[in-house]
């Protein structure tokens, strides 16, 4: 067993509680993805309990997909708890370049020092302050076009930055890796990218952020490949994907992970 399989094994053994403040579209599938992988999901955003609950969790994910000002405040409250406790949290800057509200919300969240920032190429370019051509939450830029921006954002923010796409790019500003696992049907399932944040957080709960992110991406993408081999289309892909996450062995992940240093 090499490192990716070891991290999967460790994550399942610890079954970390992952606190998610995510969008309405993602809540159900994200919870099911985390359960299938072996983690414990919770969706909590009420001001009355969000800080207290964050104190119980091993990791946090924040997704601004359907945020409003109250939700952004809850995100900041939870992120502050995680930052003070030294526990990992993941920021997904969904559609950050689309509106001023999203830009301002993400600026405030980045100031709270996320452990990991994951987005598509257009989102990472926009968050880094570089011109991007995304449309809402959809990327219109290539991963390669965002690599320099990801490096700069990682150095400026202190976060590991993951750029999702046909071949993912992950960097902490010093080291970088490419992960080539995945399947063409994955973008056809709504919120599958959002759900990835939970897997990254679960892996980061039990190990250092950069290798945890790389292993999580390989695991997720390989499960997509396995599901795609059995599915006839998006409708049959989703249950096959949950099964693949659940049935993945550490040995299969070590064999199938397509990871290279960049």
Descriptive notes:
- It is a single chain.
- The protein has 262 residues and is α/β, with parallel strands linked by helices.
- It has 11 helices and 9 strands.
- It has helices at 3-14, 27-37, 50-54, 69-85, 100-110, 121-127, 143-157, 192-204, 209-230, 234-247, 250-256, and strands at 17-21, 40-43, 59-63, 89-92, 116-120, 160-164, 168-171, 176-179, 259-261.
- Strands 2-1-3-4-5-6-7-8-9 form a 9-stranded mixed β-sheet, with helices on both faces.
- Strand 1, helix 2 (27-37) and strand 2 form a beta-alpha-beta unit.
- Helix 8 (192-204) crosses helix 9 (209-230).
- The longest helix has 22 residues, at 209-230.
- The two termini are 23 Å apart.
- The mean pLDDT is 95.
Strands of the widest sheet, in order across it, are 2-1-3-4-5-6-7-8-9
Count of individual beta strands: 9
Distance between termini? 23 Å
How much strand content do the residues show? 5-15%
Q: What kind of sheet is the major sheet?
A: 9 strands, mixed
Give me the secondary-structure category.
alpha/beta
Cα radius of gyration in angstroms: 17 Å
Question: Which descriptor suits the 3D outline?
Answer: globular
In the predicted model, the low-confidence regions spanning at least 5 consecutive residues are none
Order of SSEs: HEHEHEHEHEHHEEEHHHHE
**What is the helix tally?**
11
Helix content: 40-55%
What is the residue-mean pLDDT, rounded to a whole number?
95
């Amino acid at each position: 067993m090499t490192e990716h399989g070891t991290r999967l094994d460790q994550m399942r053994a610890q079954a970390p509680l992952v606190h998610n403040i995510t969008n309405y579209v993602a809540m159900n599938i994200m919870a099911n993805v985390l359960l299938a992988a072996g983690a414990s999901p919770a969706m909590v955003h009420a001001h009355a309990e969000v800080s207290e609950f964050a104190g119980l969790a091993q990791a946090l994910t924040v997704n601004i997909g359907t945020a409003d000002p109250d939700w952004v405040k809850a995100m900041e409250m939870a992120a502050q708890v995680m930052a003070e406790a030294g526990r990992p949290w993941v920021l997904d800057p969904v559609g950050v370049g689309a509106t001023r509200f999203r830009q301002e919300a993400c600026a405030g969240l980045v100031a709270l020092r996320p452990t990991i920032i994951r987005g598509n190429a257009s989102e990472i370019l926009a968050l880094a302050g570089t011109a991007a051509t995304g449309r809402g939450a959809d990327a219109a830029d290539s991963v390669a076009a965002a690599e320099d921006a990801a490096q700069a954002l990682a150095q400026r923010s202190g976060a590991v930055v993951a750029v999702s796409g046909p071949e993912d790019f992950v960097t902490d500003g010093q080291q970088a890796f490419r992960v080539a696992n995945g399947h063409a049907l994955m973008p056809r399932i709504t919120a599958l990218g959002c759900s990835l944040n939970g897997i990254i957080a679960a892996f980061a709960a039990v190990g250092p952020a950069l290798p945890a992110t790389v292993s999580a991406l390989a695991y997720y993408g390989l499960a997509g490949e396995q599901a795609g081999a059995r599915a006839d289309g998006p409708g049959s892909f989703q249950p096959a994907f949950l099964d693949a996450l659940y049935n993945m062995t550490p040995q299969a992940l070590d064999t199938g992970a397509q990871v290279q240093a960049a």
